[in-house]
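Data availability (excerpt). All sequences and predicted C-alpha cell strings are deposited with the supplementary files. A representative entry, HTH-type transcriptional regulator, is shown inline so that the format can be inspected without opening the archive.
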Amino acid sequence: MTAESLSKERLRLWLRMLRVTRQVESELRERLRTEHDSTLPRFDVMAALYAAEEGLKMNELSKRLRVSNGNVTGIIDRLVEDGAVERIAIEGDRRATRVCLTSAGRESFRAMAVEHERWINALFEGVTEEDAHHIGELLHRLPASLDDTH
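C-alpha cell line:
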C-alpha cells in the first residue's frame, strides 16, 4: 500500500466513523427528547455527576466533559430548577461550589441510563460481541488527543 492510498483509506475510515457517530447521536438525541424530555448534553452532565457521588466543582465538571464552564452552567441551572442537582458551598472558598445529583436526580439518571444502554444495544444489533471488542481495540490505536499526533 502506498502512502497516498493509506492516506485515502484513513480518510474514508474517518468519514465512515463520522457518519455512524452522527446517525447514532441523532437517534439518541431524539429518543432522549421524546421519551425523557431531556437532551444529550443534560444526559452527559448527569452521567458525570452520577459517576462522582461526592459531586464535582464546576470547573472539574467542565474539564471532564471537555466543554466550557458557560455550557455547563446553563444545564446545571436547569437541573437545579428541576430538583435533579444541588449546589453545595465549599468551605473556605466562597467562589466555588460543588454540584451533585440529588436522590431524585440519581433515580432519574438511572432510568435514562438503562434506556440508553438498551437503545445502543439495538442500534448496534448487527455487531457481535467479538466484533465490538475488536473494533474497540482498533480504536485504541488512535491518538487520544491532538497532542499525541505531534
